[in-house]
Input
Amino acid sequence: MIQREVDVAVVGGGAAGLASAIKAKREGARSVLILERGEELGGILHQCIHTGFGLHYFKEDLTGPEYVSRFIRAAQNLGINCLLETMVLKVSPNKEIVAVNSAEGMLDVHAKAIVLAMGCRERARGALGIPGTRPAGIFTAGTAQRLMDIEGYMPGRKVVILGSGDVGMIMARRFAMEGAEVKAVLEVLPYPGGLSRNVVQCLDDFNIPLLLRHTVTLIHGKDRIEGVTIAKVDGGRRPIPGTERVVECDTLVLSVGLIPENELSRGMGVALDPGTGGPIVNEYMETSSPGVFACGNVVHVHDLVDHVTESSEIAGQSAARYALGKLPPLRRRLSVKPGRNVRYVVPQILSGEVPTPLYLRVKRPEHSVTVSVGGELRVFRRAVKPSELVAIKLPRGLQGEGGKIRINIARRSER
Output
């Protein structure tokens, strides 16, 4: 078994892993190693050929490949070591990584600090329990995107999309641009699941119907999907009898949510937040395991890669400082708790001693609201939606009450 010793090891070479590795190197870490299971750095962004990336971070409108290529070049220029096609099998609490690849066999990497940046995965049909046969022509939105934008294949010509997540709506537009007939985008909730700009640019601009409070109740077809039965749903997301109708299609695309990829985190005993599905982190993006940091979609699913980069740079900087013995300990621990109409908050632990970006996601849409951070900070928002992450910059000096800070969404009339 080949053994390596590094200051900082980064598990995952996508947008989050690259940003954290670059920041760690610039912060003074002498040896930084990226372990990536894919054939190239950059993760999912290579297949995201649409624009909309970098508006916040670079103040430019970039495609996914354009955005991530800047980080790949920066990592190369800094001499960051990258092991591609390398699968991490295990991470231990003492910061030992066991990995394998075809060139070197088994690897034993000892790191002074670790950054977990494994990203997220899509929910597939098996997680939905849709009745019917198992024909060809059923894809997750990410798989359909890869087939079209990387492999150059056209998955189908008559398309139904279940779920109005961002990738689903982007793929609706992509299919339409290639000449396919997109019958409808179905959403079980009473509001879209993705960004408002994607509703306008991907659906409205291409006259693609968005059917809210609808779902697929049956799949038809033997060798290839021939159609789906769709129906309206009630407030409990149950199909309403008598509203069913059959829609002919040869392709069903699923855009029904993303799940943080946390098998490694769970295996090493890192505490997870049931609200996010990712690790509980403090303001330095450090997990419950000392010296192990996490960032990007492995912590919680982001809307914008710009926010992924922001949190990943904090993780990389903190990992380097930990490896060099310069990361200050938390002198006190304030527990950040979701309150009214708040689904989750990240980070979940603060000291209040440094300015910190706080991310939260709401449970339901509301207009003209105030985000209150304990009794110490109030921020007005014209609207909040479950599909759009709310980012707030917390100042230093927060005190909390009883060791807690509660985040609430209040209608302006309730203040």
Remarks:
- Residues 124-256 form a domain with the FAD/NAD(P)-binding domain fold (CATH 3.50.50.60).
